[in-house]
Design goal:
mainly beta, twelve-stranded antiparallel beta sheet, 3 helices
């Protein structure tokens, strides 16, 4: 297992980690709001990667200077305020599948007894892989709108109001609403058809007993992003 994490900044993130001599640069994958450490679970093939995020994994999130989060403030307040970074520990584990060139990632969420809970489809900009000496990462931009599906493929949209309200804001990082809607339609079609990865594959996944959370964020998480336009107020992030 190689430690991998991704940094954030107003819903643009990147997964990065130290590369051992036998580990290839990661193929295209993804991520979203927070900066979370994950562990490299293995390549599915040359066009996808799985990441395992343990309960207790270290992550970096972005806060207003006074400690409030994105959900504590109106969009006008959030885009206008100076921000800082803070280190936290993630609660809850998940297995994440990141297909190359697709506008989504799929997170397998599990109960505390390791039984499968649901699929969380995170809609996002198709990711970009980067490699820099002994660091590699996967960058993307979260689109806010998501799809949640149960094991029997009953599904619902998540964060619709949040997505639609932010579309009206001039500093919103989503450039094309129709692209997000099309990605949602694609995910729903796959879910309703029971197509991979919504066919039960990996719902019985169990981590190896020797694997453990990545409890620190590797150096390099503040490197420039490889994908997505940074929010205009990113210059106000102070540390």
């Amino acid at each position: 297992m190689k430690a991998i994490c991704w940094p954030s900044g107003d819903h643009t993130g990147s997964m990065l980690g130290g590369l051992g001599p036998s580990v290839r640069a990661l193929p295209p994958a993804t991520f979203t709001t927070a900066t979370v450490c994950a562990s490299f679970s293995g390549f599915v093939n040359n066009s996808a990667v799985r990441l395992l995020q343990f309960d207790g994994s270290a992550f970096v999130d972005t806060y207003a200077i006074d400690g409030r989060t994105l959900r504590d403030l109106s969009n006008d307040e959030w885009f206008a305020t100076a921000k800082r970074h803070g280190f936290q520990s993630w609660r809850g584990g998940r297995l994440m599948w990141h297909p190359a060139g697709q506008p989504y990632s799929v997170w397998y969420r599990f109960h505390s007894d390791d039984s499968f809970d649901d699929y969380y489809v995170n809609l996002e900009v198709p990711s970009v892989v980067w490699e820099d000496k002994r660091l590699a990462g996967i960058d993307t931009v979260d689109w806010d709108l998501d799809v949640v599906a149960s094991a029997d493929r009953r599904w619902r949209f998540k964060d619709v109001d949040e997505f639609e309200e932010r579309l009206r804001h001039r500093d919103y990082w989503v450039d094309d609403e129709s692209e997000v809607r099309a990605a949602a339609d694609l995910a729903v079609k796959l879910i309703e058809g029971g197509a991979f990865p919504f066919d039960g594959t990996w719902t019985d996944f169990r981590p190896e007993p020797s694997w453990a959370p990545a409890t620190s964020v590797p150096g390099g998480w503040q490197r420039p992003r490889a994908v997505g336009r940074p929010p205009k107020r990113d210059m106000d992030v102070v540390g």
